[in-house]
Amino acid sequence: MHASFFAARLVALAAIASVVSGLPAGCDRNATVQSGDTCDAISARHNVSTYQLATVNSGIIDPSCDNLFIGEVLCLGISDQDCNVTHVMQAGDTCHSVANATGIPINTLLTNNPNVNTICTNVYAGEVLCTASQIYVNIKSN
Known about the structure:
two-stranded antiparallel ribbon; about 140 residues; alpha+beta
């Protein structure tokens, strides 16, 4: 019985190692999916834009982010390309109001969030945007 318990632990550790090793090269922080998580919830909790989370995990997360599973490890940011200054969009927010409130030029906001169109009509409440003053344009996916 002790041997089978030990073997089960080894299998579990191997599974965890294979999930973690699937993270992109240079991943400098990660999070484990919890029950009820969505991409927006993970992004808000860990100060990572929804775009960045999806981009660095493009081999794991599908475009609609409906394939998360409990215990899955996701990369939150790549070294030297990790925007961790964010704003969670609220009803009534506009790109201009967010840029003004965070003290960054609108062009910086749009460059750091290439999923947002130039007239900012495709953002939604709950979406997490990068609001850093530094440009993070070379985010790599795995």
